[in-house]
Specification:
Length: 448
């Protein structure tokens, strides 16, 4: 099966600068009032030889935003989008937060986020307060706030909102060292308020949703550690880890005490370790990651669980920086505890090459290989349902940039993409094989 798609996209925009944090030392000299913003528009033409149309033949939209700034400290952002198929308007104060900064101290107030490491508190937005202190080589951070607001169950199933308990969390991190050499220890805890929903235990709700889908309040505690060591500025070793204790129903009297939790089933862990060496024109890295089945942290939004990743990644520059390359290849597998009926093996490879002889023109090239193969787990795997597939993508993008003056610049880029899906299952390959090509012309004008 072959498909050819053509897309033409035109875009113009105005750049925007927003203040992010407050530096108290500079506050007395700050500008009392200012504003900035952007405006843009786009047009998209689409056509395909396939009988399946995945886009409208012609669409357009106008979009923009304006940000009012007080004392280079407080931002009041507005944004809008108006198009052939949609129109939206965003008001300020939907999420508002400030981060006053003074030398090595930061104070977070309002809607903010802090990261301890990828497996504990990992950028989850909270409504509350936090602090980051880095005097000399000490590394300290702490936070407390609301992670989720209470959303009642809609028994009519018309609102589209996902029900949830009110969830609060708190955590702290302490460490010592520099960016090149450090060790951090951290703790995070999140807990649902079992009394924040009025209808959750209503029998009518249970009858509609079923017992299996009944929302239950949970509790989660996570211990974490992160570290990095640099030897002679060339060889680096780094590691991140998390140990999670999870109670999926704090209303159950049998689980009300941590000592009564089945540790074998409820103690989950995740970690990643890597090392790298910097050669003259190349950086070489090796990484290993393992996340146990059902690993969870209330301080992160999402985890791919039950996976093991092994990756090698060379990257670097040649020809005085005019050629930049980055490659990676790795193997991934699941069913780590060998309880699933099948196991999945994946081989993932990626290659990026960017050639820029001058600042005016260049060529970007990308190759992706994603191979997946299922093997038998606890049960023999029938060939009729076995997934065995290789997906390869090649992308080529020549681009040209020119500017008449310092107030405006223009970029024209032509992107060609070829995708090949090779289904190696003898029974499904007649339906699964596919080749697709895409060609896109993009023109961007930026006015400062």
């Amino acid at each position: 099966m072959k498909k050819i798609c053509f897309s033409l996209f035109l875009l113009c925009s105005v750049s925007q600068i927003n203040a992010q944090v407050i530096d108290i030392e500079k506050l007395p000299k700050a500008k009392k009032f200012g504003w900035s913003g952007s405006v843009g528009g786009s047009t998209n033409f689409y056509n395909t030889t396939s009988s399946e149309k995945r886009s409208n033949p012609l669409s357009w939209n106008l979009h923009g935003n304006v940000n009012f700034n007080v004392a280079e400290t407080f931002d009041l952002p507005f944004s809008y989008t108006v198009g052939k198929y949609q129109s939206t308007f965003t008001k300020p104060y939907l999420q508002f937060g400030i981060t006053p900064t003074y030398k090595w101290a930061k104070l977070h107030l309002g809607h903010r986020n802090i990261t301890f490491n990828p497996y504990t508190l990992a950028g989850h937005t909270f409504l509350g307060a936090g602090v980051e202190l880095n005097p000399k080589n000490w590394r300290f951070a702490a936070m407390y706030g609301r992670l989720r607001k209470a959303v009642e169950i809609d028994t009519t199933f018309t609102s589209g909102e996902i029900p949830s308990f009110k969830r609060t969390g708190y955590g702290a991190k302490i460490g010592y060292g520099t960016e090149a050499n450090f060790i951090d220890f951290m703790y995070f805890k999140g807990k649902d308020d079992a009394n924040s929903l009025a209808s959750i235990f209503n029998q009518q709700v249970k009858d509609k949703l079923g017992d299996a889908n009944t929302l239950l309040p949970g509790e989660n505690s996570v211990l974490g550690v992160s570290g990095k060591a640099t030897i002679r500025k060339k060889f680096t070793i780094n590691a991140d880890g998390g140990l999670s204790f999870y109670n999926d129903d704090i209303t159950d009297s049998l689980k009300s005490s941590l000592s009564k939790i089945d540790f074998k089933k409820k103690m989950l862990w995740a970690g990643k370790a890597g090392m790298g060496y910097a050669f003259k024109n190349m950086n070489l890295r090796f990484d290993y990651e393992r996340i146990t089945p059902d690993y969870i942290s209330y301080g992160a939004y999402f985890f791919d669980t039950d996976i093991e990743n092994i990756t090698i990644s060379p990257s670097g520059t040649l020809a005085k920086g005019k050629l930049v390359y980055a490659f990676s290849a790795g193997r991934q597998r699941n069913n780590l505890d060998k309880t699933k009926t099948e196991s999945t093996r994946r081989f993932i490879a990626n290659a990026n090459l960017s050639v820029n002889p001058t600042t005016k023109w260049g060529v970007d090239m990308n190759y992706n290989n994603f191979a997946i193969n299922q093997v038998s787990g606890t049960q023999p795997l029938n060939d009729s349902i076995r997934i065995r597939q290789v997906n390869q993508t090649i992308t080529l993008t020549p681009h040209f940039t020119f500017a008449k003056d310092t107030m405006a610049s223009h970029t024209i880029a032509l992107t060609g993409n070829y995708n090949d899906v090779n289904d190696r299952n003898v029974l499904t390959r007649i339906y699964g094989n596919m080749q697709a090509m895409m060609l896109a012309l993009n023109h961007t004008s930026s006015f400062t």
